[in-house]
């Protein structure tokens, strides 16, 4: 299986991140309509930061994003930006529904999960690195 590389002016890269957000207090607040809007918000936020949302899925208390990540970005700042913008926009559009669950302007828990995805398993990479021909 070959990996498709993205190209920038000075690098080639293939960085894929699996990102998971949970709602504050793990409350089941997300409706089908909210989830549909979230996907659009995340697509736009990713594009603004030279990234691409490859896959999105959500349940009533959490969401999963698979993002093709640009190496100019910082992961923690990227996550902070997409969480804050999506929260702000969703709370604005669904103010009445969300006010039933949260009296403060919140949506996401402060925590998140990021997992690197794609490529070869670590053991294969370790073996490849170990087997490099070191000059004599």
Word description of this protein:
With 136 residues, the chain is α+β, with helices and mostly antiparallel strands. The chain has a single domain (13-130), classed as Alpha-Beta Plaits. The protein is built from four helices and six strands; from the N terminus they run βββαββααβα. A four-stranded antiparallel sheet has the order 4-5-3-6, covered by helices on one side. Strands 1-2 form a two-stranded antiparallel sheet. Helix 1 (32-48) crosses helix 2 (75-93). The longest helix has 19 residues, at 75-93. It is elongated and about 65 Å long. The model has no long low-confidence stretch (mean pLDDT 91).
From the 3D coordinates, which CATH architecture would you assign?
A: 2-Layer Sandwich
Overall pLDDT confidence:
91
Alpha carbon gap, first and last residue: 33 Å
Anisotropy-based shape: elongated
Number of strands: 6
Low-confidence residue ranges? none
Strand order of the largest sheet: 4-5-3-6
* CATH level 4 superfamily: Transposase IS200-like
User: What characterizes the major β-sheet?
Assistant: 4 strands, antiparallel
* Helical residues, percent: 25-40%
Number of domains: 1
What is the fold named in CATH at topology level?
Answer: Alpha-Beta Plaits
Order of helices and strands: EEEHEEHHEH
User: At the first level of CATH, what is the class?
Assistant: Alpha Beta
**In DSSP terms, counting alpha (H) and pi (I) runs of 4 or more, how many helices?**
4
Q: Which band does the percent of strand residues land in?
A: 25-35%
What is the alpha-carbon Rg in Å?
Answer: 18 Å
């Amino acid at each position: 299986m070959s990996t498709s590389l993205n190209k920038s002016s000075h690098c080639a890269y293939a960085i894929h991140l699996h990102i998971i957000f949970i709602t504050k207090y793990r409350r089941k607040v997300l409706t089908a309509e909210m989830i549909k809007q979230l996907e659009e918000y995340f697509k736009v936020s990713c594009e603004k930061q030279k990234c691409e949302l490859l896959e999105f899925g959500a349940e009533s208390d959490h969401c999963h994003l698979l993002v093709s990540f640009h190496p100019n970005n910082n992961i923690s700042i990227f996550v902070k930006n997409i969480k804050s913008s999506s929260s702000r926009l969703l709370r604005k559009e669904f103010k009445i529904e969300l006010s039933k669950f949260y009296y403060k302007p919140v949506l996401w828990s402060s925590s998140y999960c990021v997992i690197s995805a794609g490529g070869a398993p670590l053991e294969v990479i370790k073996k490849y690195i170990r087997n490099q021909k070191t000059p004599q």
